[in-house]
Amino acid sequence: MYLKDSVVVITGGKRIGRVVAQELARRGADVVLSYRGSRTEAEQTACDVKAQGRRAVVAAADVSRTADCEALFATALSSLGRVDAVVNMASVYGSRPFAELTEADWDRDLNINLKAAFLCAQAAIPAMRALGGGRIVNVADWLARSGRPAYHGFLSYYVAKSGVIALTEALALELAPDRILVNAIAPGPILPPPEMAAEEVEAVARLTPLGRWGGALEIAKAVIGLIETDFITGETIRVDGGRHLA
User: Which of 15, 31, 69, 175 has the most CB atoms less than 10 A away?
Assistant: First the structure.
């Protein structure tokens, strides 16, 4: 699929999502950015896109809700006329000891990290079918892709991200006749969380075979590759600097 003059919906427009949007615009795509609590960051990303001569639309949406997802894609169609691809980047990440894990914690992780990807895909499919095809790119996690939880305190997050991989594979099979390709990216050490101590940041870099954190541009490159491909579907690609090998 050619990115030039395509329309890509991105859920989440800050940090990594901002760089993804910038790179898509650089290659000629128009972008729809959804946000739930980060309006300022989404609007800043939209400005980046417009500065490259491309169109950008910002829309508030809780993508764990069916009505919000339907409204998001209706906005994309009414504003930009089509939907060629969706990049499901909305995510929450945090740890909680198993003994303290609540039903609300479980629902939050499953709803935002997994259910939202399904609902956005479901809302996008009619527009893609009308075009004769499309692309869906989900975001999993390198540990889920590697099939090992490895760290205590991330039970519901790990389950959700493992579900994203299963969703990606099942959707790819279901949508192949419609020429809608569905893939996922499994990031490893890309950007350190803002609250991470310097010594921990350095320790993660040492444990990564390539010896560093990847940076958001590496995710953007993978997203672009999975949108442009015409023959990869049902795949989850690790972008982790070889971290799964250590």
Answer: 31
Query: What's the full length of the chain, in residues?
Result: 246
**Counting Cβ atoms within 10 Å, is residue 159 exposed (0-12), middle (13-18) or buried (19+)?**
middle
How far is Cα 214 from Cα 27, in angstroms, rounded to an integer?
21
Tell me if the pTM is above 0.90: yes
Can you point out the beta strands (E) in 75-171?
85-88, 134-139
Q: Among 9, 50, 15, 52, which residue's Cα sits nearest to residue 217?
A: 15
Q: Domain limits of the chain? A: 7-245
Which candidate in 93, 151, 157, 158 is catalytic?
A: 157
Mutual angle of helices 16-26 and 39-51, in 10-degree steps: 20
Residues 73/119, Cβ–Cβ less than 8 Å = no
State the pLDDT at residue 13.
Answer: 65
The closest of 232, 224, 236 to 25, measured between CA atoms, is 224
What is d(CA 168, CA 139) in angstroms, rounded to the nearest whole number? 9
Sheet containing 30-35: order of strands: 56-60, 30-35, 7-11, 85-88, 134-139, 180-187, 236-239
Question: In the CATH scheme, what is the homologous superfamily, with its name and number, of domain 7-245?
Answer: NAD(P)-binding Rossmann-like Domain (3.40.50.720)
Mean pLDDT of successive 10-residue stretches along the chain, which has 246 residues: 97 89 98 92 96 97 98 98 97 91 97 98 98 98 94 96 98 98 98 92 97 98 98 98 95
- Give whole-number Cα distances, 150 to 98, 144, 155, 216, 244, in Å: 14, 10, 10, 23, 11
